[in-house]
Design a protein that fits this description.
This protein has 271 residues and is an alpha+beta fold. The protein is built from four helices and 15 strands. The chain folds into two domains: 35 residues; 229 residues, Lipoprotein localisation LolA/LolB/LppX (outer membrane lipoprotein receptor (LolB), chain A, Clam).
Amino acid sequence: MKKRYNVVYYNTMKGIVMRTVFFLFFAVLMIGSLFALTDTELLRQADELVSYFDTDFSAEYTIVEDKPGQARTTTVAAIFRRDSQETYVIVILQPSISRGQGYLKQGGTLWFYDPESKRFNTTSSSDRFQNTNASNSDFTRSTLSRDYQVLSGEDVRLGKYKCRLLTLLSSSKGVQYPRMRLWISEDGLVRKSEDYSLSGQLLRTSAIPDYYKMGDRYVPKQILFEDALKGAVINSSFVKERTLITITKPSFAGVGDYIFSKTYLEMVNNQ
């Protein structure tokens, strides 16, 4: 009788445990699904992680341009951003021939300052920066969720990263690349992008292998751009143009209001 009681008790407890485990497993799945981001939310999060609305940002950018068959060129620039006002300033430090050239973005207007002529001229965010494969728009805050709509998403692997691959279509006028493919890793950071024309021609590929983590903010350590169309035939193989940007001395210290002005760019060249 006692043995029968033990068997019944064991089976009862086993059933309770199994039901409890099942319930907890189901609850975890439900919680995970409740907090899972949609692809549109994921795109918005990717913007927010590298946009700094509550502080200023400054850093030094070293931009190395490799054009097959030509000498490598290096440009060093100081960058100042104030994302809350959609403004930035870039001052060229090297090479000496370009020293003192500068850019000032104020809202939708981008000015280029030439210290030789001492004149400001408007330029486009989509223009190539200092004749590299980087665009002027690559130096401002990320606005992917504002400029694009998500057409589709799929889970993929990119090297060591598990990523969500998003296919995007431009939703605003003036966007440089009408179509994009974007790889976002599990931490919400963009790791790779492919930029396309409206017809589907690949124009440029970019990669961001690593980031600085500064509190709850992220800053790319390097950005590699590869032009899909420009290059030269070297030893019977087509070698594409590449631009590598290395970011150093990132800071979120406050920047004086006077820096975000034409006067500052003029003053830099009078020092």
